[in-house]
Amino acid sequence: MQLTNFLIPLALAATVSAAPVDCLGKALNIFEDINCPLTSTAILPTIQQPNYAELSAPAASPSPIPTPLRVVLGHGTQNYTCSTNTASSKPVAAGAKAQLIDASCLAKYPDLLHSLPATIMSFNPKQLSEFLAKKLNIYSFNAYIGDHFFSDATTPVFSFTRSGGETIVGKKSENVAAPATVNAKGMTDGMTTDAVDWLKIAATEGTTNGCKSVYRVVTAGGKPPATCEGQESTVEVAYATEYWFY
């Protein structure tokens, strides 16, 4: 089965780091088209680096190369709780919340698509909001198609009801460490200490579009601090990622 390599050329990564506005601007031009048909040429990213595990591939039947049902960008927060604000306590995962933006048309431009999570994380939240408001109102043409949240600490939900679609409830089935190609700031320094794991999520209920699995890949940001020292009882850490639905 053919899967795309996540390794981003150094020149592209440097461009993303040096000019995130240009990179995001190119993507926003493509966002003017939404709901593009997806085919088997839209290839799920894989890590393909030494000493890194891979997520198992989506079921290929009946085609040797599976076609995704959806490709979306997620941007929001990974959430954690702290029982105390001391170094002896460690943050405990408490779900996530994110907006889901249609990226089906970007799937034809994989280098650009895969650069976006790190690019988004290179903006602070205020800068990102101001840039989007100035350049493009994504709400005006329905690129914002869904919401990701957790119904409890371990149950992810992907709701596309705002765009007339399905609601998928899942359970994490696999996780692997994020690759060392690009860190959460888009820099090629060989470290991804800020990037949450890549995931495979099995759809367990609520599926109305034939979805059986969801992949969280090409992550940027989202990891909690090492300890709860100096933290509030609730910790929100910004992240961006791609979600692929099969």
Describe the protein.
The two termini are 15 Å apart. Strand 5 and strand 6 form a beta hairpin. With 246 residues, this protein is α+β, with helices and mostly antiparallel strands. Helix 1 crosses helix 2 (20-31). The chain has an 8-stranded antiparallel barrel. A two-stranded parallel sheet has the order 1-2. 18% of the residues lie in helices and 33% in strands. Mean pLDDT is 81; it is low at 1-18 and 182-192. It has one domain (33-45, 68-245). It has helices spanning 10-18, 20-31, 110-121, 125-135; strands at 4-5, 45-46, 70-81, 92-102, 144-152, 155-159, 167-176, 198-205, 213-221, 234-245. Residues 1-18 form the signal peptide.
List the helices and strands and how they pair.
Elements: E1 4-5, H1 10-18, H2 20-31, E2 45-46, E3 70-81, E4 92-102, H3 110-121, H4 125-135, E5 144-152, E6 155-159, E7 167-176, E8 198-205, E9 213-221, E10 234-245
Parallel strand pairs: 1-2
Antiparallel strand pairs: 3-4, 3-10, 4-5, 5-6, 6-7, 7-8, 8-9, 9-10
| Shape assignment | globular
Question: Approximately how much helix is present in the residues?
Answer: 10-25%
The side-by-side strand order for the widest beta sheet comes to 3-4-5-6-7-8-9-10
Give the amount of beta strand, in percent.
25-35%
Radius of gyration: 17 Å
Structural class: alpha+beta
The quaternary structure here is: single chain
User: Between the first and last Cα atoms, what is the distance in angstroms?
Assistant: 15 Å
* H/I helix tally: 4
Runs in which pLDDT lies below 50 for 5 or more consecutive residues are: 1-18, 182-192
The total beta strand count reads 10
Q: Note the main sheet.
A: 8 strands, antiparallel, barrel
